[in-house]
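Structure in, sequence out. Go:
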């Protein structure tokens, strides 16, 4: 690999550029890029790597960064685009693309995580990937394990910062009982607290009910899973309603006890006289109305 790729700037045909690492982008953001280029022109050239076609000796190019700008030029019907042309291998291009996207990564995207896996498949060690991406070796190791296990749901939670990668790996390696132990340990060690702990619990429940993420099951498995999920959801709702009914019944009993106790006390002339002597002859209207509705009025 070259540590300092040679480069120069020139106008090249958009049709000769191949996007080797395509990314799905937000349509609204892309429309803004198109409008901005149409009004102000291209502020920064794209970066490409030159490739020579051995059969025809024609030059083609691999895109390193600037997919949005390139696609905007195509939408605007522009035949050529300013580009910084560098001399670099495909592996170097992938690393540069990865680092460039690392600086502007949106947390809901899995592109960075997939690029880490691509670097691993290209022969880079976990320590080399960590050094090139400025990520910790522990993070890279955990991400690769989750990617190889197709844990897309956990990966999204890791990249959005909802759970640490170490906790995600422990969840992926545990069964249903073990997952609860992982969450408890994370709480006790203060790794997950408050809203993050609740988010982790919801994530675990979603993973248990719906699987690891997209592409993890075939149609038959999904059909069986949906029936099991429906039954489990119904049972959970029934249990929740039973708990609410028990709480409501206990609260009603306590309110009746308090109401009748107050009514009995206010029926006692000695108690009322004591309240008047202490300047407490008035009670809140809400309580008074409540007592009035129970077997007569306050004396």
């Amino acid at each position: 690999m070259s540590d300092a790729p040679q480069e120069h700037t020139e106008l090249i045909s958009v049709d000769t550029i191949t996007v080797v690492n395509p990314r799905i982008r937000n349509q609204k953001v892309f429309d803004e890029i198109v409008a901005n280029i149409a009004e102000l022109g291209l502020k920064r050239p794209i970066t490409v790597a030159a490739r020579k076609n051995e059969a025809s000796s024609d030059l083609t190019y691999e895109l390193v960064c600037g997919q949005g700008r390139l696609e905007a030029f195509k939408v605007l019907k522009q035949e050529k685009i300013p580009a910084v042309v560098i001399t670099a291998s495909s592996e170097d291009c992938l690393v540069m693309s990865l680092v460039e996207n690392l600086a502007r990564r949106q947390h809901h995207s899995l592109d960075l995580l997939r690029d880490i896996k691509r670097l691993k498949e290209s022969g880079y060690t976990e320590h080399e990937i960590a050094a090139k991406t400025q990520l910790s070796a522990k993070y890279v190791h955990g991400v690769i394990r989750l990617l190889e296990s197709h844990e897309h749901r956990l990966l999204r939670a890791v990249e959005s910062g909802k759970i640490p990668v170490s906790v995600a790996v422990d969840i992926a390696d545990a069964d249903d009982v073990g997952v609860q132990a992982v969450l408890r340990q994370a709480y006790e060690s203060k790794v997950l607290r408050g809203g993050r702990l609740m988010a982790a619990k919801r994530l675990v429940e979603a993973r248990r009910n719906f699987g690891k993420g997209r592409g993890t099951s075939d149609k038959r498995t999904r059909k069986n899973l949906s029936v099991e999920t429906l039954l489990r959801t119904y049972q959970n709702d029934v249990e929740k309603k039973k708990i609410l009914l028990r709480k409501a019944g206990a609260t009603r009993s306590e309110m009746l006890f308090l109401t009748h106790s107050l009514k009995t006390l206010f029926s006692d002339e000695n108690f009322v006289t004591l309240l008047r002597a202490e300047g407490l002859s008035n009670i809140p209207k809400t309580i008074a109305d409540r007592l009035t509705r129970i077997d007569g009025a306050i004396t």
